[in-house]
Amino acid sequence: MKRFAAFLITILMMTGGAYAYGVVEKFSLDKSRTFVGFNVSYLVLARVSGRFGDFKGSFVIDRKQPKNSRADIIIQTASVDTGYAARDADIRGPDLFDAERYPTMVFHSNTIEMVTDEIGHVTGDLTLLGITKPVTLSLTKRPGLDKSLTNGYKVTGQIKRSDFGMNAFIRPIGNVVTLVVCYNMEACTPEDAQPEKDKRQYNQ
Questions:
Q1: Phi/psi of residue 96, each to 5°?
Q2: Range list of β-strands (E), 77-203
Q3: From residue 21, how far is each of 8, 9, 45, 60, 116 by CA, in Å?
Q4: How far apart are the two ends of the chain, measured CA to CA in Å?
Q5: Reported pTM
Q6: pLDDT digits (tens, 9 = 90+) for 53-83
Q7: Can you give the residue range of the structural domain that contains 105?
Q8: Which CATH number goes with the domain that contains 70?
Q9: What is the largest CA-CA distance in the chain?
């Protein structure tokens, strides 16, 4: 019995405490198990998806003491990657992310509320281009990567980039941007993501 208890404790430690009796889950958003991305309309009929390769963050879900739950992430905007180098250079430039002046995008939660065991809401402040606005995101628990004991989680929501002063190219590039962060999941895409149909601007 003692050997089994020791084995169980070891497993809990290896999974970051995610199964601490289903009460408290703590995670560090390591790059090997975390996807941070976005999705936006382009030329009306197409959608462009991208990801950020450089970020750090953590989150805690405390089901008994919700006030202790929190989520924080810092994203390096210059790490944006849509699969097209010329387009990525435009996105990093002064008309959009202006990554030289504003190298980071930061989210800090104020509350995390689990409505059910699998669905919740995250409210907090997002800072982009030096402007901070409140946002509300949806939180969903998913099966863990490779059937691991650690839960997977998906956080997604939408913002208007114009609210943060990102007003360039509003017509060809949509104003509403879908954000998504996935931890320890097999696949991760925003619910409204569609294949990109028109890449001619960067294929000439």
A1: -120, -100
A2: 80-81, 104-114, 119-128, 131-142, 152-160, 173-183
A3: 11, 11, 47, 14, 16
A4: 68
A5: 0.82
A6: 999 999 999 989 999 999 999 999 999 999 9
A7: 23-202
A8: 2.40.128.110
A9: 68
